[in-house]
Amino acid sequence: MRIQLDKELEVLNHEIEMMGDFIQTSIETSVKALVSQDVSLIKIVNDLEIKIDEMEKKIEQHCMNLLVQQQPVASDLRLIESALKMITDMERIGDNSEDIAEITKMFKNKKLITDLVTIPKMAEVTISMVRRSITAFINKDKALALQVCYDDDIVDNLFVNVKTELIEMIRQDVNNGEQAIDLIMIAKYFERIGDHAQNIAEWVIFSLTGEHKNTDNIGKQIEQEV
Asked: Which residues form the domain of 51?
């Protein structure tokens, strides 16, 4: 029975990794569509969202089957519960990525009011957070999960920078208002993706320790772990 459960948990890891790959590709494609103003890429994001939703349902059913058909011990139960919580955040990341792509439609054939530097940086950090949070789950790496939580502060700070810059642009010229608001919304979606990645990392920590805590202001805890 234990051997079969271990095999099923390996399959679960593979499924979560696959869902994570879809999410990362979705974020990468949505920011590429924004920077290049290539609206043809939006369909790719939409198609990926369908795959992400399908993976969420598949993993959820797999976890339910493990709970009913196998005999998981306490550590296994934490892992399965964490997986169920994680895929909810992962699906929402897919939603946020699709929202970003949809706003990109507004910029077709329009000159952007600002050079896109900080928003792509937000995308880069959030993609890394998502990738590392899933790696932390698969490798049972608490220190890596803690680092992901810490990096959410980077995304938050970048969001503040974007918002401050764009609000100032509106003050200087009200004609910048509509596009500036759209760009702020895009930055906000990336900020939310960072929050969801942090949530995933927190569930990884729970799967390993049995404790689920808010990991804001986590610098001192990281220093103790590394």
From this structure: 2-225
